[in-house]
């Protein structure tokens, strides 16, 4: 294993857009709560935090002012790399305005898929939702990220999504080392198995960074698979509430600490903030 492969970048998705404190009391809503969770994640070993914005009542928002408040509060507490979400519902113009705040990273959904969406009102899944991300939209998002200096984190729910990076590379909208996230375990996407993860990892160009995002209790076994394959890991309350023991986490920091322990057990080491920066921007120039 090379020195680069020995380092593991730990990311933490702090809050998401759907889950609430009724599901898990530790879910943060306000800018201060999100920033405090960012600090807990950073202190436990995360060098990147993935952030959705919430209103104070927990509902999702694309308010640029709210994102600005989250960034300000987070930077008061720790120097963690900030990764804005751009995915979900709402007009594209709303979902890119916060990129002007110049986060280091921005999530870029790489394709469309059928999506089983939970209806809180009906207490059941709806099977008529399509998570639409046309090539036109993907390219438009990528152009906005490039304009504001944010490195795209290409979120791939299936193999076709992963291979779509070639379009962005051909147009000069992404620069190596490319940065992939493999979301596994969403109904409608690629199954959450180590074998499927290995196949996804084979699709990326040499020198790229990739990580796994396992949904719910699949998170830990997929994290172990990623560590053995040379990949990085994302944990966090957006994706999963539970520690490997089955106990509900009391903070994002607890989830990151559990991931850091898995890294140590794998024989690899957690990348520091400085090491993460060198791995993702070997030529410098990040926000």
Folded structure, characterized:
The chain is 37% helix and 20% strand. By secondary structure, the protein is an alpha/beta fold. The protein has a single domain (3-280), classed as TIM Barrel (Alpha-Beta Barrel). The strands form 3 sheets. An 8-stranded parallel barrel has the order 2-3-4-5-8-9-10-11, surrounded by 6 helices. The protein has a two-stranded parallel sheet with strand order 1-12. Strands 6-7 form a two-stranded antiparallel ribbon. Helix 2 (31-44) links the parallel strand 2 and strand 3. The longest helix is centred in the last third of the chain and has 15 residues, at 252-266. It is globular.
Describe the protein's topology.
Elements: H1 3-6, E1 7-8, E2 10-13, H2 31-44, E3 48-51, H3 64-77, E4 81-84, H4 92-96, E5 105-109, E6 113-119, E7 124-131, H5 135-147, E8 151-156, H6 159-163, H7 165-170, E9 179-184, H8 194-202, E10 209-214, H9 218-229, E11 232-235, H10 252-266, E12 269-270, H11 273-280
Parallel strand pairs: 1-12, 2-3, 2-11, 3-4, 4-5, 5-8, 8-9, 9-10, 10-11
Antiparallel strand pairs: 6-7
Helix pairs in contact: 2-3, 2-10, 8-9, 9-10
Round the mean pLDDT to the nearest integer and report it: 93
CATH superfamily: Aldolase class I
Gyration radius, rounded:
17 Å
Strand order of the largest sheet: 2-3-4-5-8-9-10-11
Q: How many DSSP H or I helices?
A: 11
CATH class: Alpha Beta
Please state the overall shape, judged from the principal axes of the Cα atoms: globular
Number of individual domains = 1
CATH architecture designation: Alpha-Beta Barrel
